[in-house]
Amino acid sequence: MASSSGAGSGNERKLIRVPSTDAHARFNLSPVPSVEDDEIESINRRNYPETDQDDSGEEVDLTGGAYDSTTTVTMFDHNHDVTSSLRVQGHGGLVTDVAYVVHKHYENFQTIDWLKDLMRSRIRHRNLRSQRRKSWRQRFTFLFDTWSGWICVLLVGILAGFVAGFVDIGAKWMSHWRSGVCTPAFWLNREQCCWASSKVEFDDVHNEICDNWKSWSHIFGFTETAVAAWFFRYFMFIFWSVIYSTFIVILVVGSAPYASGSGIPEIKTILSGFIMYGYLGKWTFLIKSIGMIFATSAGLIVGKEGPFVHISCCCGNIFSKLFPKYGNNEARKREILSAAAATGVSVAFGAPIGGILFSLEEISYYFPYKTLWRTFLCCMVGALVVRIINPYGNGHEIQFPVEYNVPWATFEVIPFIGLGALGGLWGTLFIKTNIRWLKYKKTSRIGRYPRAEVIILTLITAFICYPNQYLRLTMPELIRRLVGQCHIDDHMDLCDYVRDKPIGTATAKLYAAEAGPGLHRAIWQLFWALIVQMTLVIFTIGIKVPSGLIVPSISIGAIAGRLIGIITEQIAFQNQNIALLRRECGVSNEHCVTPGLYAVVGACAFLGGVSRMTVSLVVIMSEVTGGLSYIVPLMITALTAKWVGDAFGEGIYEENVKLSGYPFLENRESFRFSLKAGEAIRANRSGENPPLACIYQDGMTIAQIDALVRHQPHSVYPVVISADFPCIVGQVQRRDLLVVLKSRKIQLEYEKPKSGSLNRKMSVVSMSNLLNKSGQAASLGRRRASIALQASKILQLHKLVDRAPIIVTDQTPMEAVVDMFRKLGCRQIFVTKNGRLQGILTRKDIIRLMHDANVSGKFDD
User: Fold this and answer.
1) What is the pLDDT of residues 110-128, one digit of tens each?
2) What pTM did the predictor assign?
3) Which of 141, 213, 386, 621 is the most exposed place for a label (fewest CB within 10 A)?
4) Closest of 400, 22, 323, 339 to residue 159, by C-alpha
C-alpha cells in the first residue's frame, strides 16, 4: 500500500520526491524521450524481462525503435491475434505522444479490478453486437459469443463427471487391493469380483467372502486360520498403504505443490478476485486427479470429495480459455469457476441442488442471476454423467442411500440437539488443534520434510487401523454401513439383536429388541474407531497430498451418531412405560428408534461444526442419503452445530485462508466500530509517517520514475498535479510504467551509438493531455518549462492514466468503505481531504483493520 502521510499535530502530508540524477528538467508523466548517459546506464542496469507471460499464455513483446524523434511500442495479444501498436505523434520534434494499450491480464498474486473487467466485457459485447450485421462471419462470432457460457459449463460438467467416475472406481479398486485380489479378473474390486460367484457369504462387517476373491495370505500359501496368515495380511496392508502414499507425495511435492490439500480455501480466495496462476492449471488438474485415488487408497483419514471442487474449477479454467469472453476477462471467468465449484460437489456426492447452494453459500463471491442457471445446467450434466458411469454400483448416483422411511418420534429432538452441540464442540476442537499444528509445522523441522511426514503418518495409520475391522474399511464403505438399516438376513455385528418374536419371512417387520453380544462388540470397536479417526484427522489434514475434510467429518459424525442411536434405542426399549415414550414406543414397539437415522444426523452435525454450513449442508445430506423425510432433524442439528461452533470461532475454511495470508474479504463479517477513512489511514501507519509514493502530472524525469517503481513497488501510483498542490487527477499501473521504461531502454540502446555524446537530452514525462502551441506541457512552470524545452523532449503518457479512480473523503465512514470494497470489488480507494490526497486504502488494509477491530479489540472505546 502506498501509505499515507504522517499524523503530526496539524502537519500536512509531504509527498515523496525522488531526487533527480541531475540538476535539470523534471519528469512529466508520458512515455519515452532521450536521457543523459548516466541515466542510460542506470536504466540499462535494470533487469526488465524481455517477455511478460501469464498463466493463459499471453505474451507481450516489448520492442521499440527510434529512427528519428518517434517511439513505437508493439504489443502482441495471442488471445485476440491482434497487434496493437503505440501510435506516436510528434509535436515539432519535441513531444512524443504514446497511445498505449493497457494490459488486460494481471500479475501473479494480485487482485483483479472487477469494475474495469466488467466494463470491458460490456464494451466488447456491444462492439460484437453492432458488427453482427456486416457479414455472416461476424454474426456467427456474435452468436458463438452469446452461447459460449452455456457451451463452456456443459463441457465442464461432462469432464468433471468423467473424472469423478474414474476417481471413484480407481479408489475403490486400489483400496481393496490392499487386502487381496480377484484372481479371475484382477481389475475388479471385491464387490464386483463376488457378483459372479455362486456362493457368497459375509463377515462381521458385511464384507463379501467368495471363492473368486483371494487374500494375500492365501495367494502366498498360508493357511487362512493360522496366526502367521493374519500377520502376513497385516504386513501386506501396511506395505500397499506405504507404496501408495510414497508415490503420490513424491509426485505432488516434486511436480505440483498446488495439488495438495482440499483447495476449497484457495478457491474461495480466487473467486473473490485473487490471482493465483498455476493453481488451476492443467498439470495441477492431472496430478490431483491421480493423487485423490492414491491418497484415499492408502488409508489416510482424508476424503476425495472436497478436492473435487478444486478439480472442477481446474476444468472450468481450462475450458474458459477456449472462449475469449471468459478466457481474456478475469471477472467473467469467475462466473464459470463458480459454476464449476458447484459441480464439484454435485459429482462428488450426487447432489446437484446441494452443489448449487454450496457454491452460493460457501464459495462464490460474485454470483449473478444468469450464473445460477448455468450452474444448474453444469451440476445437472455432471450428476447425469456420474449416474451413467455408475461408480457406486447401486444403480443410481446416491452415494449413501437410506432405504427406509420410518417416521421419527418427537422426543428424539432432544438427542438431535445433543448431536448438534457435540458437532459444534468437535468442530471447534478440531479447528483450533489443526490450525495450531499447521502453524507449528511451519516453524519446525517437520515442515521441512513433507515426504517423510506423509510416509510416517501412513505407517502409523495403517498400523493402528488394521486390527479394527471398521477402520479397515474405506470411509465411504463404513458410512454406508452406519447409515443403513438392519434387515432380516443381515448377520453383521451391528444387527445382532436378541429377538423374542420369531421371524417369519424376509419381508417380516423387525421389532425393537435387546442388544446381543455382537452389537456390544461392535459398540466398543466403533468407539475405538471414533477415537482413532478424531486423533489422526488432526495431523492428516494439511499434509502434502490431496486431502479433503468432508468425508472424514461425515465418517466421525456417523460413528458418533450410530453410537448415540444405539444407546437411545436401548433406553427406549427398556423404558417403554415412561410417559415421554409410551405414546410413540409403547404400542407396536416397531422401529421406535432408528440408529441409522442418528448416523445421518450425526454426520450432518459434525460436518456442520467444522464447515459452519447450514442450508447447503441440509440439502446435500438429504440428496446424499435420499432421506427426504428427515429434513427437520437435519435442520435442527445443522443450526445447533453452527450456533455452538460460532460461539468459539470461525469455520475451517476461513481459518485456513487467514493462516495462508490470502487477501480474502469476508462478505458475512461486519465492521462493528465507528471509524472514518482518515482515521483508518492513520491507524494503518502504526505510528510511522512514510511519504506517499505518487507521480506528478508534469515535471518528473524518466530516472525519477525508474527509481520510484524500483524503490516503491506498489501495483498502482496516484497521479497528482504537483507536490505543492496534491490534487489527484488519476492513477497509473506499475506494470504499464515498466513496459514504457523497457521500451525506452531499447530506444536508447539504438540512439546512443547513432548520436554519440552530442545527443545528451533529458526525458521529461507528462501525464497531462494539455499542450500549448509550442509543444510544452501547459502545467509546467515557466522556469521548468524553459529548462525542459532547452534540454529535452516531452514524453506524453496521459493515455496510461486512469482518470476515474474511486475517491472518498477522510470523513467517509469505514462501514461505507468496506461495503465499496465488497460490492464494487475495488482494488484500492483514494482518500482526500479538502481535495488533497491523504492516502490510499487497499483490500489488505481493510482486512487488517477488520482483524484489529473484531479480534484484537484495537478500536474498543
Assistant:
1) 888 888 888 888 888 898 8
2) 0.81
3) 141
4) 339
